[in-house]
Amino acid sequence: MEEKIKEIIENIRPYLNMDGGDIEFIKYEDGYVYVKLSGACQHCLYQDSTISDGIEEMIKNEIPEIKGVINIEL
Predict the structure, then answer these.
(1) Are the C-beta atoms of 42 and 21 separated by less than 8 Å?
(2) From CA 15, how far away is CA 36, in angstroms rounded?
């Protein structure tokens, strides 16, 4: 499961990189994917939208059993 999630995140990464941002996979636990947005994405006003409408949607399309994506700040 984690390998598939990481693969999807690697496919998303170039789009975030184009806007000066990045994403890092942290862990998969209890149906939730934990990621860390960085760069321009870290403090972007559209961060929640990026997570829910972009990243979460793309992951759920490939892995329907995912409950959600959570951005954590380390």
Answers:
(1) yes
(2) 15
Does the predicted TM-score (pTM) go above 0.85? yes
CA distance 50 to 57: 10
CATH number for the region 2-71 comes to 3.30.300.130
**SS3 label, residue 19:** coil
Write the burial class of residue 55 (CB in 10 Å: 0-12 exposed, 13-18 middle, 19+ buried): buried
Checking DSSP bridges between strand 32-39 and strand 68-71, what pairing results, if any? parallel
Model pLDDT for residues 24-56, shown as the tens digit of each residue: 999 999 999 999 999 998 888 888 888 988 999
As a whole number of angstroms, the distance between CA 1 and CA 65 comes to 10
